[in-house]
Structures are given as structure tokens and as C-alpha cells.
Automatic annotation (TrEMBL), chains A, B:
The gene is plsX. InterPro entries: FA_synthesis, Phospholipid_synth_PlsX-like. Belongs to the PlsX family. Its EC number is 2.3.1.274. This is Phosphate acyltransferase. Homodimer. Probably interacts with PlsY.
């Protein structure tokens, strides 16, 4: 299996990316190769500086770089030789089985939609985030920002895709799916959540546990938290800021340590024809390493094919 | 000044309410009287049990009680002698200058809308919550649950009302108003936040600081955080759960201690013709005391009249 990594993406690229690859080859199964996508000379120099000599690392040249603040659609069309565009090309051709980057999130999302494309039958692919649970597990929260406005059937599919991810990547047998809402009762909420509730209720395949509230994010009421991308984004950034404050105040314990994005690595795009993981812009080498491990697990369990089998038209 | 307290409202009523009143008279200015609304015999017995003898406390009988789980509109029409209905009667007649309760939130909201009513010109009254800021201040977040679905002009008014509250009750000179969103850029967000942004942008009276994100809730980017009631409710309950987990894990420090709802007391309804504060269902005596102090500050600074002057038709 080959996993491509955008060596030029992220606030601390290319150093952090190369460092992440170096750490990852020590933990990945020996049949996994990392394909570093980016400026070949820079990557070669960095690998040699860091003393990395491994046939588990391969370089694929890409002359251009999409900046963190560039407009995603414009940048992708104007920079066909950027590391993100080239990475998606490798994924589409089947040369690699997963592609990940800590670079421009919008460009990663648009790149996925325009190259490997949404699975036919999936209305809107979503970006999944992860939240630590008090019981030691991780929960999936989807969507965390790709779709600010959602329709009820889109939320329904988020629940289905999140459930498939939780089952296949986290090994949770029959994942509990909860709908984020402002109250537990069926009739509570926005027009969106009220309508979505009815769709979830009649689905016989999902283990739908009903509405959950803001206070249930860390408990075990739901393994999969379904919400629109606006709400999910606010929750995730709020949680991140709490981690930062706890760290600053020296209050971290093993549970709150797991809030650290570095431990998780990245957020997969679910509902597209391939395994794509987007990392945090500030990703360190450790974060990149964990993103690579996650991409490999995702590819190993064929999540996107299972979503296609289940939701594909 | 007289402040009415629903003696029968809350999970621990009437004991917690009486305890709260007892604590409050030790801190309130001597010209403030507390009017306890509820079953007179029960209240009298409790006051005597607790050794409270004060002419700063007055009892106003109300024979019925609205339960925490009752349907707000039905309960209010079927129980005209409930402590909530009677309390609003006292507020409407001008006998008291503020009314507060830790009872049924929905009944408090509906009661306000049907008795003292929304200020003419205010499209939707909102419930304000409070978040501690890292710099030691408190911020206002509005709405936290009264209006799940909002229109752009409703968010605009939340910003105006929150700003008036922050200025008059917290004494913040020119409160910074931020729009909760999933990114900082003007074009980011839902159709709702994009449209609301344009309304805020052309307003010359408000100190609008633009979009803020989930990570900005505790920093000083904004004194007033504007969002729909769905988002605000998720944020507030999420913050509450974090407080609970920190407490359980013995990780509280002075900053996180301020997450405790007890320190704040309650959430005012802004945009109605009177001062109304709703307390948390689980309110302890300390929480009730702080709700009473808050109601008195609100009444003392005439927040509802200032909102009427500014937004009234």
C-alpha cells in the first residue's frame, strides 16, 4: 500500500511533513510506502539532513505550492502542478491508496470533489472530526465544516457514513448515532433537526439513539455525533481552545490530553471515491505521523468502498 | 425595589429558593425587598425553620406549581394560580421590578411573551447566557435556546440587545460584538450568518468586530457573542459539561471555577417589557442568591427600558 503525503502543506511544511514521515515509517506496517509529494530538491535535502534513508519513502515531484490563504478553486485551477493537485492525481490513478495533507483545507476539499469526486448517491461528502470520550474511546463527529448549511437527508447520510467509519476504523460493533440538538425530546430543535429526526427514526439499519445535547459530547450516549458543518466546526474549535487553555494553565490530565489534535492527526473526508485526510494547519511532526497512520488504517479497512456499497446509487 | 422569586421553581425547590433568598438579603442593598411567590404555608414554615426573620422578605401566595416537565403553554393556561403565572402578574402590574425562577424554562419564556410581552419593534426576544473570559471579565452570548431558527434581522437585534446589556449591567464601555461563525472571513458561513454579517456591517451604532469562531469564546475578541439559539444552546451545555468533568477530575482553577453556573445565577430574557431571569433547573441556594443579585442589577440599570428606547417601534 502507498500513502501520499503533501510535503508542502501546513504552517510548518516542509520540515514538519518530513519529520512526520520519518516518525511514521517506524510505526507503519512494512508493506506501507509513503509517497512525499512536493519540490523534489527540497525534500531530498531535508531527508538527508534528517538522516532518513529508507526504501519505504518515495518522492514524487510537484513544482508548485498552494498557500494556506489561497482561494481553493482558483488555486487548484491555476496550479495544476501544486502538491495538492498532483497528490489527488496519484490518488485518482490508483498509484496511492490514500492522500493526506495539512495544507489548505478548502483546496483539499475542492480537490477531492473535482478529482476523485463524490460517490454517486452521496449528496454531500462530509468532514469527520474526533472527540475523546470519558470512557476512553473516541467518538466521530460529522460534519465539522465542509457543509455549513445542510438538508435533513444530508444529515441522515452523515449518520450513515459516520457509523461506517466508526465500525470499520474504530472497531465499534454497532455504533450509536446521535443527532446534536438543543433538547432530548423528538419535537425539539430547528426545522432541520426536527425533519432529520424523522428520517433517522424510520431507518432500520442505523443504531439511532435520538437527540443528544451539548453536554453529551464526551459521554457515551453516542459514538457518532451528527450535525451540520457550522455546528460541528464551532464545537471542534471550542474544544481546541479549551485544550489550549488547560495546557497553558498546566491542568492537563490523561483525558484532556486526548483533546490534542496531534494525537488524532487529521479529519477524513467521507463520501468521496478515495481515502483523503486533512490535517490541522499547525500540524507538528507528531501530528503528521498520526495523520499518516490514520490514512493507512482508513485505506486498510476500505472505508470509502464500504460507504459506496451502502450509500452508492 | 421589589424582586419576585418563584419559590416553587427548580429541582430543589422550595428549599433551595428559600435558602437563596436568605443568602441574598445579606448582600442586596437595604432598599431591595424579595417577594417569595408560592404556597404560603410551606414558605412560612421553611423561613421559620431556617430562622429567617426579615422585613426584607415578603410572601405572595400562589396555590399551584408548574412542574419542570410540563408543556409550557398548556401549563400556563391551565394553572393561572401557579407561582410562575402569579409572578408574571406581579411584574406586569408593576408591583415588582423583576421576576426570576429556576423553574420550567419554557413556561418562563412563554409567560414573559404572554404577560409583559415582547417590546414592540423587537422581532424575537432572546435568552442571554454568560461566558467567563480569560481576562477576568464575563461575556454575553445571545441567544442560548429561545429561538432555534433565526433570521438575519433577529441576529442583528440580539447583537443590539446584548450590547445594551453588557454596557449597562457589566459596565463595558463600547462592547465588542462578534458574530459566531465557522471562519473569520466575511463570506464564510451559513446563508444566515452571511446575511447577518451584511446587516451588522452597515450598522453605525454597534462596535461590530466581525466573525468570531468557536476558539474565540473565552478570549477578548468579543464581549457579546451573537448566534442562533441552537448554536448558543450547544455551546453553553458543552461548556457546562466541561466544568463537570474538570470538577470530577479535580482540575478546577480560578478561571474554570467561573464556568460554574452557580456563580452566574441565571439567564435574562432580553427584549421583553420587564426584567426576567431564568435559573438553571438544578440551582442551589447559592445559584438562586446570585440570580436574585443579577435580577436586582438588571432592574437597577433599567435594561429593558434602554432596549425599548433603542429598538422600540
Amino acid at each position: 500500500m502507498k500513502v501520499a503525503l503533501d510535503a508542502m502543506g501546513g504552517d510548518f511544511a516542509p520540515e514538519a511533513a518530513i519529520e512526520g514521515a520519518k516518525l511514521a515509517i517506524q510505526e507503519l506496517p512494512p508493506d506501507v510506502q509513503i509517497v512525499l509529494v512536493g519540490k523534489e530538491d527540497i525534500i531530498t535535502n531535508l531527508l538527508s539532513e534528517k538522516g532518513v534513508e529508507s526504501d519505504l519513502i518515495e518522492i514524487h515531484n510537484a513544482d508548485e505550492v498552494i498557500g494556506m490563504a489561497e482561494h481553493p478553486t482558483k488555486a487548484l485551477s491555476q496550479k495544476p502542478n501544486s502538491s495538492i493537485a498532483v497528490g489527488f492525481g496519484l490518488l485518482k490513478s490508483g498509484y496511492v491508496q490514500a492522500f493526506c495533507s495539512a495544507g489548505n483545507t478548502g483546496a483539499m476539499h475542492v480537490g477531492a470533489m473535482f478529482t476523485i469526486k463524490a460517490i454517486e448517491g452521496v449528496i454531500r461528502p462530509g468532514i469527520a472530526g474526533f472527540v475523546p470520550k470519558e470512557n476512553g474511546d473516541f467518538g466521530v463527529i460529522i460534519d465539522v465544516g465542509a457543509n455549513a448549511d445542510c438538508k435533513p437527508d444530508v444529515l441522515m447520510q452523515f449518520g450513515q457514513m459516520g457509523s461506517i467509519y466508526a465500525k470499520n476504523v474504530f472497531g465499534i460493533d454497532d455504533p450509536k448515532v446521535g443527532l446534536m440538538n438543543l433538547g432530548e425530546e423528538e419535537q425539539k430543535g430547528t426545522l432541520l433537526t426536527q425533519a432529520a429526526y424523522q428520517l433517522f427514526k424510520i431507518d432500520k439499519q442505523l443504531n439511532f439513539v435520538g437527540n443528544i445535547e451539548g453536554r453529551d459530547i464526551f459521554n457515551d450516549k453516542a459514538d457518532v455525533i451528527v450535525c451540520d458543518g457550522f455546528t460541528g466546526n464551532v464545537i471542534l474549535k471550542f474544544a481546541e481552545s479549551i485544550y489550549d487553555i488547560l495546557k497553558k494553565r498546566n491542568l492537563l490530565d490523561p483525558f484532556f490530553h486526548k483533546f490534542n489534535y496531534e494525537a488524532i492527526g487529521g479529519s477524513p473526508i467521507l463520501g468521496v471515491n478515495g481515502n483523503v485526510v486533512i490535517g490541522h494547519g499547525v500540524s507538528s511532526g507528531t501530528a503528521i505521523k498520526n495523520m499518516l497512520l490514520q490514512a493507512q488504517r482508513m485505506a486498510g479497512s476500505n472505508v470509502h468502498l464500504k460507504i459506496k456499497e451502502s450509500l452508492g446509487a
